[in-house]
Amino acid sequence: MHDLLEAAGVKVWFSEKDLGLGVPMMRAIDKGLLNSRIGLVLVTPAFLDRIPKEGVADKELSVLLARNQLVPIVHNTTYDALRNVSPMLASRSGLDTSEDSMAVVAAKIAELVAL
């Protein structure tokens, strides 16, 4: 998704790609969230497993939900499964990769960001 969005001209901050060695992770994520206009959450089975553990993913999700700038993208799971873990996130309008390819999802996000 990261590469598809960048290819579409979207400036993307992604902690797994943009966090340098030795950089304080939580502070870098905090800065990334602060400077973001839209937050994307790729909802996967692994993500659904991490949320109840209240780690970093849970903290990022809390910030994005509070800022009302969140777009969930369901991938290899369902909105019903998400609703069982995070009803607030599941209530957001989002995208589903079972309905659209990743390329189509990236194009829709790029269109949203351009508004």
TrEMBL record:
Residues 3-98 form the TIR domain. Pfam families: TIR_2 (PF13676). It comes from the Bacteria. One of its GO terms (biological process) is signal transduction. This is TIR domain-containing protein.
